[in-house]
TrEMBL record:
Lineage, broadest ranks: Bacteria, Bacillati, Actinomycetota, Actinomycetes, Micromonosporales
Protein known as: Beta-glucosidase
Organism name: Polymorphospora rubra
One example of a Gene Ontology biological process annotation: cellulose catabolic process
Reaction(s) catalysed by this chain's protein: Hydrolysis of terminal, non-reducing beta-D-glucosyl residues with release of beta-D-glucose
Binding site for substrate: Q26, H127, N171, Y303, W400, E407, W408
Any one cellular-component term (Gene Ontology): cytosol
A Pfam short name: Glyco_hydro_1
Length: 446
């Protein structure tokens, strides 16, 4: 509906940064080129039955070959920031040893192209594509993988450290833990709670070691973690629901936030797991100091709230999107931003993902009418505006995603982009939401 685009009259502070986000495996394709090794997502997507429709990231949006045209589209939208990820197996095919120059060169070209167009690069070091060789050596259950990650990060910083102003370490450690090791519908496809929480610790450790690697180089870049945060609300007014919600919040949010920002894991979560858990046995003296190495910013990704019942289950309160786990509730973004600022102090925050999937199709005259995305983004941006007005030091907003891409277990069935990708031809078509977002950026307002 046209009223979704009616201005709300909410201006953002001068210098507020508008952007969009992607990740390597979801858009690049070219999985066998220029010395790239295999990742756990190559293995997983090629395992029959794992991905809807049997889809893989082999070609994806072919961004590895089409990045120059994609950069032009970003410029046309007026983006001030582009968040992308670096594929570890392009830099170290087997996850160790001397960096692969051709892999580094791709990201050097990408970063140079961003600067030429006046767009600030924001680089994520790890968006889930672990080199398969490291998985074969135990994956994130192995403490050694965190040390390997520090070496990889150091190689990337050496090549790109002067040209990337903002670094993010690990994308959504919680999603690796929950989807990869508890539910098993993401790589590596495990259902092992004991392993899962040890994996969480090693991901946090890897984060801290990468922060230290950047600090020891010196240089201009800022760095922080990228957490998907879920505001947790009790499903009813009972004391039991309140208690269950607190513990749920411990696993969803405080486990990650507390360790990085206070140097402790939450006591209620540690108690819940017990003293003999693999996590408890895997934490060594000094680990929390590494994890809590001071960061420059917090990257927040927001998609959905969670409503927790007295029995510790969850219920759905709001309309869901095409992603059945996503309830549309813009106030949740306000709640999580203000809560983080209240509980952990005024650390600069970037919203590095927010968006929804739509079932839009290519319409007549090459139009894509994704009015639902316009409404969703407008309402979430308005919630972010309210958080700023209430004192949250929010610097930027990145839409997930710049373009349609490989949505993990959902394959190409879910389209999350501002830009439609016609996969058979790889043509890009700006959706209605992309035109709308261009005007938001130009006006610095919704
Ligand atoms: C993020 N949840 O994953 C990822 O960073 C992206 O790669 C992905 O494409 C995007 O969101 C859309 O799914 C999430 O269950 C996975 O709340 C699960 C949740 C949130 C984000």
């Amino acid at each position: 509906p046209a009223d979704a685009e009616a201005p709300l009259g909410l201006r953002f502070p001068d210098g507020f940064v508008w952007g969009a986000a992607t990740s390597a495996y979801q858009i690049e394709g070219a999985t066998k080129e220029d010395g790239r090794g295999e990742s756990v997502w190559d293995t997983f997507s090629h395992t029959p039955g794992r991905i809807k429709g049997g889809d893989t990231g082999d070609v994806a949006a072919d961004h590895y070959h089409r990045y120059a045209g994609d950069l032009d589209l970003m410029r046309d939208l007026g983006l001030r920031s582009y968040r992308f990820s670096i594929a570890w197996p392009r830099i170290q095919a087997d996850g160790a040893g001397a960096p692969n120059q051709r892999g580094l060169d791709f990201y050097r070209r990408l970063v140079a192209g961003l600067h030429e167009r006046g767009i600030a690069p924001m680089a994520t070091l790890f968006h889930w594509d672990l080199p398969q060789a490291l998985q074969d050596a135990g994956g994130w259950e192995s403490r050694d993988v965190a040390l390997r990650f520090a070496d990889y990060a150091d190689a990337v910083f050496t090549a790109l450290g002067d040209d990337v102003p903002v670094w993010l370490t690990i994308n959504e450690p919680k999603t690796v833990v929950q989807n990869g090791y508890l539910q098993g519908h993401h790589a590596p496809g495990r259902q092992d709670p004991e392993a899962a929480h040890l994996v969480a610790h090693h991901l946090q450790l890897a984060h801290g070691l990468a922060v230290q690697a950047l600090r020891s180089r010196g240089g201009p870049g800022r760095i922080g973690p990228a957490f998907n945060l879920h505001p947790c609300y009790p499903a009813d007014s009972s004391p039991a629901a309140a208690a269950a919600t607190t513990l749920y919040d411990g696993y969803e949010n405080r486990f990650y936030l507390d360790s990085v920002l206070t140097g402790r894991y939450p006591a209620d979560v540690l108690d819940d797991l017990g003293p003999d858990s693999r996590l408890a046995r895997g934490i060594r003296d000094g680990d929390l100091d590494i994890i809590a190495t001071p960061v420059d910013l917090l990257a927040v990704q927001y998609y959905t709230p969670i409503y927790v019942t007295a029995a510790g289950g969850t219920v759905t309160r709001w309309p869901t999107s095409q992603a059945d786990w996503q309830q549309i509730h813009p106030d949740g973004l306000y709640d999580i931003l203000t809560r983080v600022t209240r509980d952990y102090g005024p650390l600069p925050i970037s919203i590095t993902e927010n968006g929804l999937p739509t079932t839009d199709a290519l319409g007549p005259d090459d139009t894509v009418d994704d009015a639902g995305r316009v409404t969703f983004l407008r309402d979430h941006i308005a919630a972010a505006h309210r958080a700023i007005a209430d004192g949250v030091p929010l610097e930027s907003f990145h839409v997930w995603s710049l373009m349609d891409n490989f949505e993990w277990a959902e394959g190409y069935d879910q389209r999350w982009g501002l830009i439609h990708v016609d996969y058979p031809t790889q043509r890009r078509i700006l959706k209605r939401s992309a035109h709308w977002y261009r005007s938001v950026i130009a006006d610095n307002a919704v």
